[in-house]
Structures are given as structure tokens and as C-alpha cells.
């Protein structure tokens, strides 16, 4: 869905990704986390877990919006970290936004901005993870 005015949303088949958005989001985040921690193993829960882990991240995405009115892409939600024994160690809201030009190809630039906000989230997760692992 794309916001085209303050009171109107539009479904556009051209904005569909090749795979479900949740898979693309996880793929980009896993790549970002692996770059921040090249020595670490990143598991996708629950299907990949085969061993005890140092930290578990639960990610709740509330909004991933492409707003053609304000020319902005926004990603927001809550992350929650648990230690290896599933004890809560951190919970924070997140929000990342990127603007795109009003004179450009809306589709191609907005898709690029979606990737940028996901990468920003990945960088923030890497930074927070590094702090939590030092404790």
C-alpha cells in the first residue's frame, strides 16, 4: 500500500518485491549484522536454531511506509534483546526515515530508500548488540 494523499491509500502491483517483504527485510538485516559481526553466526528463529545463543533479538515492525505525499520512507517498531537464558536485557523503540526527491522515479528511489532504512536498522542493531555483549 502506498499513501497518495492524507486520506487515500493505493495498492500498486509494481511495488511488490520478488519475494515476501518479511523475507527481504530479514535477508538485508542478516547481511548487515554479519558485516558488523563477521565472526558470529546469525540464526533466523525458529527454523535455524541449532545451538545455545548469546543473544536473541525479537523484532516487531509496526510501520514500513512509502508516503508519496511527504516523499518519505519510514520504518518503525520495537526491538527486544534476550540473553541466552531468555531473560530480557534490552527493549527499545526504533524509527528510521529517509526522504526521496519529488522529481525522481518514485518507484526506484523509494525502493532504494526502503533498503536504506533497513540498513540503518541493521547498523543500530549491530551497535546495540556490541554494547550488550560487552556487559
Outline of the structure:
The chain has 135 residues and is of the alpha+beta class. It has helices at residues 21-36, 106-134, and strands at 2-5, 8-10, 55-67, 72-83, 88-99.
Report on this structure.
This protein is α+β, with helices and mostly antiparallel strands and 135 residues long. It has a single domain, classed as Rossmann fold, CATH 3.40.50.10610. The protein is built from 2 helices and 5 strands. It has helices spanning 21-36, 106-134; strands spanning 2-5, 8-10, 55-67, 72-83, 88-99. Strand 3 and strand 4 form a beta hairpin. The radius of gyration is 17 Å and the shape is elongated.
Give me some keywords for this one.
Rossmann fold, 135 residues, two-stranded antiparallel ribbon, single chain, 33% helix, alpha+beta
Tally of separate domains: 1
Radius of gyration: 17 Å
Order of helices and strands: EEHEEEH
Task: Please give the order of strands in the largest beta sheet.
Answer: 3-4-5
The fraction of residues assigned to DSSP E strands is 25-35%
Arithmetic mean of pLDDT: 82
Can you name the CATH architecture? Answer: 3-Layer(aba) Sandwich
Topology:
Elements: E1 2-5, E2 8-10, H1 21-36, E3 55-67, E4 72-83, E5 88-99, H2 106-134
Antiparallel strand pairs: 1-2, 3-4, 4-5
Helix pairs in contact: 1-2
Amino acid at each position: 500500500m502506498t499513501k497518495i494523499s492524507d486520506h487515500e491509500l493505493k495498492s500498486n502491483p509494481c511495488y511488490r518485491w520478488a519475494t515476501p517483504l518479511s523475507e527481504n527485510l530479514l535477508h538485508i538485516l542478516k547481511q548487515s549484522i554479519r558485516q558488523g559481526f563477521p565472526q558470529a553466526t546469525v540464526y533466523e528463529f525458529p527454523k535455524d536454531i541449532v545451538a545455545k545463543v548469546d543473544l536473541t533479538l525479537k523484532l516487531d515492525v509496526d510501520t514500513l511506509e512509502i508516503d508519496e505525499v511527504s516523499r518519505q520512507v519510514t520504518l518503525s517498531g520495537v526491538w527486544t534483546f534476550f540473553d541466552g537464558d531468555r531473560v530480557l536485557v534490552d527493549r527499545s523503540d526504533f524509527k528510521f526515515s529517509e526522504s526521496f526527491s519529488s522529481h525522481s522515479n518514485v518507484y526506484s528511489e523509494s525502493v532504494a530508500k526502503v533498503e536504506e532504512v533497513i540498513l540503518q536498522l541493521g547498523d543500530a542493531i549491530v551497535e546495540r548488540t556490541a554494547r550488550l555483549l560487552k556487559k
